[in-house]
Amino acid sequence: MEPNNIDVQIFDYLSKPLANEENHFFSAKLAILDTIGCIIHASSYENVHSFAAGETSVELLKNPFKTVQNFNSLVDSTWYLTVLTRWFDYNDTFLAKEWGHPSDNFGTIYTFFQKNTSYKFVDFTTALTKAYEIQGSLCLGTSLNKLGFDHVFFVKLASGSVFSHLLSDGNSEIVKRTVNNILMDGPSSRAYRHFPNVGKRKSWAAADASKRGIELSQISRTADEVYDTIQNEDDWGFENIFMKNSELSFGKDLDDWVIQNVLFKVLFPAEFHGQSAVEAATQLSSEFNQNRDKFDKINLYTHEPAVRIISNKKELKNASDRDHSLEYMVAAALLHGDLTYEMYEDNFSGLAEINQLRKKIHVQEEPKFTESYYEFSKRHISNSIEILYNDNTRSEKITIENPIGHPSRREEAIPLLEEKFTKNVESAFSLKKANQVWNEILNLKKDDEVKKLFSILIEDE
User: Fold this and answer.
1) Is the CB of residue 276 less than 8 Å from the CB of residue 31?
2) Which long-range contacts (CB under 8 A, 24 or more apart) does 282-287 make?
3) How large is the angle between the packed helices 6-14 and 172-185, nearest 10 degrees?
4) Are 363 and 273 contacting, i.e. CB atoms less than 8 angstroms apart?
5) Can you give the pTM of this predicted structure?
6) 27 by DSSP, 3-state: which?
7) N or C: which end of the chain has fewer CB within 10 A?
8) Quick one: pLDDT at residue 2?
């Protein structure tokens, strides 16, 4: 890899065609469909939909893709779509040194092409692929969380740089200036993702980042300095001020690998480090419920990032706390054989029972799981669960190396992704329409006009 600053690396990457469009094209369509489903589902909650619309006076329609047509501001459109994408933590994920959700960039890409329709569909998928690649490769090379900063900074970089390249028609100075203006903005604290400050901000932080990326890309069209030493200048540089003099870097050469290896949340609305634990818990649910009279405790073996991020036995103040508690998610899955959005809410009837059980779940690191998590050729997200009884017997230890959304289980996941999509869009589309949208988007060709995508989403039944 070249030792250039990331402004140079990003511009060079955005200026070149991808080596093989076939590699990423199908994966990009799966990512588009999964994100569309998340957006429509979130919009079915009136309070979420209103929050996403912000101060705009746009009428909120049942189909959010009809609503967003009426936004005048690119910034407002991006905020709207990204809030809806991210609200329920059910969009795709990428895990490495840093963790993130590459589809947080979808709203940015959709917003640009909705207002600029003289492109081909492959231009849309390529822009999305490159945004995924920039964010995911930064996650592979640079940890923000260990420094106390939030991963959405990489959304700001990915969305801002790709949008800038599109907006400026590939102007080198403007794109580099955008990247460096984003570096000068700096990252935000990730305190709102951790006890005792967890709250709804984690559901809109990515929208805030993508919105700011667009704002800076627009501002950066004004003639100005490129600020090309801001990354590593000795006194006031980004790496000195924010990274304790460690390097901001990509973990791999930039190509189209990330979108092909993204993690889909197929079965459960759960933070991804715990997905395989929830899957294992559902397999033990029947045995657990049949033997509750002699249940003693549950052992859960996991990888180090899960211990650090989502293992939480302290007070869980709200739904935002609960959906990032490994013990809470596993307890709910053991009790109910499933995990749904509703189980996180304050008014869920089984809340007290889940809270009681989660305190009997003992989490510990399994070093070989941590090793496989970081090994590039594996990138496993493993968890094991066993139930211990008071008669000195124990259940089978269920180990899930990779949850079903992992790329190693992609073929198994596709029909379940379709089921998830169909369920997510039921507030806006009939079953017939949902199936039609799924199939028509999957069948889009590279040379189709991009406006065909928008037509599929907004045409009446």
Assistant:
1) no
2) 282/333, 282/337, 282/338, 282/339, 283/398, 284/334, 284/385, 284/387, 284/395, 284/396, 284/398, 285/333, 285/334, 285/335, 285/336, 285/337, 286/337, 287/387, 287/395
3) 140
4) no
5) 0.90
6) helix
7) C
8) 44
Task: Delineate the domains of the chain, giving CATH numbers in brackets.
Answer: 6-260 (1.10.4100.10), 272-403 (3.30.1330.120)
Structure tokens at 342: 């509703």
**Residue 254, helix vs strand vs coil:** coil
C-beta contacts of 286-295 below 8 A and 24+ residues apart: 286/337, 287/387, 287/395, 288/334, 288/335, 288/387, 288/395, 289/334, 289/335, 291/387, 291/389, 294/389, 294/390, 294/391, 295/360, 295/387, 295/389, 295/390
Exposed, middle or buried by CB within 10 Å (0-12, 13-18, 19+), for 20?
A: exposed
Give the pairing type, strands 295-302 and 361-365: parallel
- Among the residue ranges 146-160, 173-187, 304-318, 437-451, the one predicted with the least confidence is 304-318
pLDDT of residue 312: 75
How does residue 1 score in pLDDT terms, banded at 50, 70 and 90? Answer: very low
Q: Per-residue confidence at 243, pLDDT binned at 50, 70, 90?
A: very high
Phi, psi of 383, rounded to the nearest 5 degrees:
-145, 145
Q: Does the CA dihedral 375-1-161-12 come out positive or negative?
A: negative
3-state helix, strand, coil in the chain (%, to 5): 55, 5, 35
| The pLDDT of residue 144 is above 90 | yes
Inform me whether the pLDDT recorded for 281 exceeds 50. Answer: yes
